[in-house]
Amino acid sequence: LYLQEPSNKRVRPLARVTSLANLISPVRNGAVRRFGQTIQSFALRSDSKSPGCSQKSCSRSAAPTPPKRRNSVLWSEMLDVNMKESLSTKEIKRQEAIYEMSRGEQDLIEDLKLARKAYHDPMLKLSIMSEEELTHIFGDLDSYIPLHEDLLASLGEATKPDGTVEQIGPILVKWLPRLHAYKGYCSNQLAAKALLDQKKQDRRVQDFLQRCLESPFSRKLDLWSFLDIPRSRLVKYPLLLKEILRHTPKDHPDTQILEEAISIIQGVLSDINLKKGESECQYYIDKLEYLDEKQKDPRIEGSKALLCHGELKNKNGHKLYVFLFQDILVLTRPVTRNERQAYQVYRQPIPVQELLLEDLQDGDVKMGGSFRGAFGNSDKAKNIFRVRFQDPSPGQSHTLQANDVFHKQQWVNCIRTAIAPFQPTAASAELKDLPELSEESEENNPSVPNIQTLKRQSAMSGVTEMELDESISECGSTLDSEENKGVKTHRTWSGHRKTREKQLSGKRKETLV
């Protein structure tokens, strides 16, 4: 037999990036120093690449470098045995919580510096992005470093030689109001994320960010994770303070002051959340495109809050992006203009005081004629609801489908909350002879022929307040804008009781405004 020793050599195909290594000035921060070393190793691998290797073998990537992990050491692990025995279990837990806050500030400062040194400065010097684009994405991130350094220094001064902190309350009460400085940064996050996603289509940006992601200094975090660290830190403060307070004795001088500090941070987060909500609302308003002047409504431009928004499908399975502002419902079609996302207004926006909601049952859609089974595959339509004008003269009716029952319920609850103030106070009576409105035309035309007047004896009550989803860990419903199974929804309702609705002909449920 003829045996040949297999070759296990792997060569990573990397372009020359020697200039990038020279961009990083010597710094004390270990993570940034390792970034420079990683770039230099990229260059060495590129220089040693064999020119005779085949294209197939060169395309094989080497095993990824293990990410650098932060050392997680408990405060109690740094104590000697005698000191540990002299403290009560409750006091040890209190000091652990204080140390966790101090350690978190130190980590935040390192990450903010890393974002500047490893991402912003190299991309600027290599002209991967313009200075204007980088300013829009990074904001005034540098200005927050001294803010957190001040807190870290104050905690250091309050720490005794044995490592304990007697009082932290006065320090926090004095420092927490300064977090109002994050209003502008958090308000700009939506636009910054959109620009970053757009720039990732650029091959140079994509390549640079991928190299950084594969480097140990990134800890497998992408650029946006670093940019979002300040926001995620903000929403942790109430939890950290409550944890310190939980382990603080009632007769301790910190108890009352910590309660005041918790109240302060909750107020700060509420203000930031309000400002961010207004900014998000305006961001989407600016991206609306109107096909007809009749579609424009002053209630859209005057909106200050976006109650709910996300992707839904219409009766033909076409994707619509729906916005529920505080005073009006707007259905749109996502479009791309010069590589930028925009939203083309679809049909006529429906003011909430004129909005009628139907909560349809799964498999019980009876729209008549060719509309039956319009959701395809002869499967019964699921997770659907219908919105229409209360006054039938505009003649519009939109049957919408959510991804799942959870998101359908979010939409239904949110719409009911919006229309609740316009519900009549008189006792409801059964609806009689309620005809079907014809479904909207697929043509993007805001004008629709009139339809037979809708007859009703009296409006139906039964829409009640809904539960406020209080989650300070998410900094309010708009501070943590996340995707949830492809449908992003933002809720701002209060109280909840299940609505009892009378079953009508055709097993349909009606909520009249």
From TrEMBL:
Residues 305-420 form the PH domain. Keywords: Cytoplasm, Guanine-nucleotide releasing factor. It comes from the Eukaryota. GO terms for cellular component: cytoplasm. Residues 487-500 have a biased composition (Basic residues). GO terms for molecular function: guanyl-nucleotide exchange factor activity. GO terms for biological process: intracellular signal transduction; positive regulation of Rho protein signal transduction. Pfam families: RhoGEF (PF00621), SOS1_NGEF_PH (PF22697). This is ARHG8 protein. It comes from Chordeiles acutipennis. The gene is Net1.
